[in-house]
Amino acid sequence: MSHHPRLLALALLCLLLGAWELTVRQAGISTLVLPAPSVVARTLWSSLATGYLWPHIGVTLAEMLLGLVLGGAAGLLIGVALAESPLLDRVLKPYVILSQVVPKLALAPLFVLWFGFGMLPTIIMTALICFFPLMENTFTSLRQVDPQRLQLFSLLGASRRQTLLRLKLPAGLPGILAGLRVALVLALVGAVVGEFIGASRGLGAVIIAAQGMMDTPLMFAALAAIAAIGLLCYQATLMLERRLLRPYTDSP
Tell me, which GO biological process terms does this entry list (predicted)? Predict the structure, then answer.
């Protein structure tokens, strides 16, 4: 029964692609406007077979993962600090919110000006984008621990550090991992969007170059590669989540 939803999802994908293919062929839509899925698949295959896309995929993956590590680590640490210290929460929270309401795309040209061309501006923008979900989820999860369990730890004489490591973090792990899933998706989006501004490598740069050459099938091929990366990485986070939560779900 566990494979039933996956089969339905695959059937829906095939139905949508078939409708897309049929519509393009019957309506005679130009490849420049909307290529058929078969054309996109051939372009994607040839781009991978010739080795054209692989370096760009590697750059986008590196930017996404580095940005996720930097932004995620900062989000986790600051989330813990704000949850543990009401004073820090009152002092720093407005600045954290302010850093998020400023559009990152508007900052991208400044990052290029400050840090030059290459991967660094994109990594920094990606880190800023995926920082907030993990910070907010960590803060909320640690603040919502059962008060009775907190009181029990206090009665047993547990230190603040022991309470954090043995109660708050394990209890808040589902919420923290949910924030990680959101941060991962946003990291991929941030990496691709960052490549739109001044990057010469990466899948975002491929999309911009294909747009300039009016090569619509290549644009769709790059988008298909981005979608595949996103799905694979999201599934990887779900596997990680199940592995980390198994000791808590298997306990009687």
Answer: transmembrane transport
Separation between Cα atoms, residue 54 and residue 136, nearest integer Å: 35
Does pTM top 0.90 for this prediction?
no
Could you give the C-alpha distances from 2 to 5, 7, 83, 168, 181, in angstroms and in order?
7, 10, 38, 32, 22
Cα 44 to the chain's mean position, in Å?
Answer: 23
**11: in domain:** no
CATH number at residue 159: 1.10.3720.10
Determine contact, residues 21/220, Cβ cutoff 8 Å: no
> Which run of H or E residues covers position 199?
none
Q: Are 218 and 47 in contact (CB under 8 A)?
A: yes
**138-161 pLDDT tens trace:** 988 888 888 888 777 777 777 778
Within-domain flag for 222? no
Tell me the per-residue pLDDT of 218-228, one tens digit each, with 9 for 90 and over. Answer: 999 999 999 99
Q: Residue 68 to residues 83, 92, 183, 202, 206: CA-CA distances in angstroms?
A: 21, 22, 7, 16, 22
Q: What is the pLDDT of residue 125?
A: 86
Instruction: Check: CB of residue 189 under 8 Å from CB of residue 158.
Output: no
Averaged confidence pLDDT in the chain: 85
Domain count of the chain?
1
CB 209 within 8 A of CB 222: no
Taking residues 115-120, report their average pLDDT: 79
Residue 95 has pLDDT above 90, yes or no: no
Question: What's the token pair of residue 32?
Answer: 């420049």
- Residue 220: inside a domain, yes or no? no
For residue 178, being part of any structural domain is answered with yes
Q: CA-CA distance, 237 to 178, in Å (whole number)?
A: 9
